[in-house]
Amino acid sequence: MRTNPRAALSDRDFIKLFNKLGAKELAKQLGHNTRTVTRRRVLLENRHKLPITAPTHPNGSVSPHRPQQYPWRAHLDVKDGHVLIGSDAHIWPGPMTTAMRAFIKFAKELKPKAVILNGDVMDFSQISRHDPLGWESQPEVVDEIEAAQDILHEIEKAAGRAQKIWTFGNHDQRFERTLAIAAPKFAKVHGVHLKDHFPLWTPCWSVWVNPEDTYPVVVKHRGKGGDHAPFNNVVKSGTHIVTAHLHSAKVIPFTHYKATLYGVDDGCLCDPNHKSFLYAEDGVKNWRSGFCVLTFKDGRLLQPQLALVHDDKHVDFCGALVSV
């Protein structure tokens, strides 16, 4: 008896199986013809704004539907509504942080146009280029990926049809850098790219929101460093810019003759006191756990707002404590 692939498989599971099997084999397993499976693939590509490809062909060539190289930029057009941006989750197996619980709650309640993970979703401490600190235990790579898949699945469910974009950070890059150095001949094999394990997320290096505007919003993981990074980033870029990496959670306006622009550090979704940060040697960390909400009205960015962890059960957002 045939099964309906749309009813039998969630979007996430369909994309994972299509990536693994390709249209012909997936159609065979579902008892449908290839055209039906291909039609759903196109529907999901349009819905989630991401390419869905078959695995590497037997002759070693890559599926023609998308290049292996990550797109340089992702573009978003938002006239009215919200864009939710969180970064630096540094996910290890274990309980979800307060900031992450709040991020999922906001993704559900704000109904954003897009959700952006602005880098360093995982820590990948075992494949860091830095030497270990003594004999502390660190999670296996597979455990970090599985923990991240569980949490991102919760974000996916909460965000619904919002576009889901992941700007890769320096910790995320550890995964492919390690494989590229150790096994370069596996470059075209499914699974060696981080995006293969998170099929609903569009990978890129930066996101440009309303790119045709005079002052688009640029979202990327890293920019300038130091305590004054948000200010330096907005001055140097000449447009609104949201960065991460420094975990500092700041909104800095810069006004010139023509406009007020915003430089934002979106904070961190991790717990600053987590054991993954032992390298800080229990020093003072000017970090704040939270995330950023961008709001657009008639295509224009309003002042960015931060949701900051107040205690284990609340975040401070727009002058009110929100339970999470």
Could you explain how this protein is built, in words?
- This protein has helices at 5-8, 11-30, 34-48, 98-109, 141-159, 173-182, 229-237, and strands at residues 73-76, 81-86, 114-117, 163-167, 202-204, 206-209, 217-220, 240-243, 250-255, 260-265, 290-297, 300-301, 305-311, 314-317, 320-323.
- By secondary structure, the chain is α/β, with parallel strands linked by helices.
- It has two domains: 1-67, no CATH class; 73-323, 4-Layer Sandwich (Purple Acid Phosphatase, chain A, domain 2), CATH 3.60.21.
- The strands form two sheets. Strands 2, 3, 4, 5, 11, 12, 13, 14 and 15 form a nine-stranded mixed sheet that branches. Strands 1-6-7-8-10-9 form a six-stranded mixed sheet, with helices on one face.
- It starts with a helix and ends with a strand.
Features:
324 residues; alpha/beta; Purple Acid Phosphatase, chain A, domain 2; 2 domains; six-stranded mixed sheet; globular
Counting H and I runs of at least 4 residues, what is the number of helices?
7
The residue ranges in which pLDDT falls below 50 over 5 or more consecutive positions are 57-68
Radius of gyration: 20 Å
The CATH first-level class of the largest domain comes to: Alpha Beta
* Percent of residues in helices: 25-40%
> Which architecture of the largest domain per CATH?
4-Layer Sandwich
The biggest beta sheet is recorded as: 9 strands, mixed
Compressed to H and E, one letter per element, the order equals HHHEEHEHEHEEEHEEEEEEEE
**CATH H-level superfamily of the largest domain:** Metallo-dependent phosphatases
**Which secondary-structure class do the elements indicate?**
alpha/beta
